[in-house]
Amino acid sequence: MRRLVSVALVVIASAIVLVAPIGSANEAAVLEDLPYPGILVDHPLYFLKETRDNAWLILTREPNLKSDLLRHIADKKMSMTFMLTDKGKWNLAVQVALEAEDDLQKAAESAQEAIEEKPSDKHYFIEKTTASIDVHNQALADLQRIVPQGERDRLDEALKVNEETRKLISN
Which pLDDT value is given to residue 16? Predict the structure, then answer.
């Protein structure tokens, strides 16, 4: 009986280890800071989501609202990269990471415009944009550890854009 219980415990422990998510604690922490992306870029109806987002951006005229919207879109795209890597779609994941960094850079530019219009909101925009830049930087570092070697050069481009965005918002 004792041997049967021991075997059962070993089997249960092995199952827990095998089912446990593969990834670093950093990856889990980064994903907690990023919003759920909804449908992914590989979904056939993704173009509707992209059209909606572009319509929101065109209709949003105020720089402060545009900055918040662009930052949210960039965060969703960065979250999407991890879901794409889970599916093994490395090339698409890196492409979306580059798009996320471009959107984040646009968000920082809109934040600068908002600060020029209303200097009293400077602290808010710098804090929010810097926090997003930090999360993206950590996400890119996590992605570099899991993507194949051939995709890492493109991730280096995304990291460069991230650093440019940091410089832009800190001025």
Answer: 42
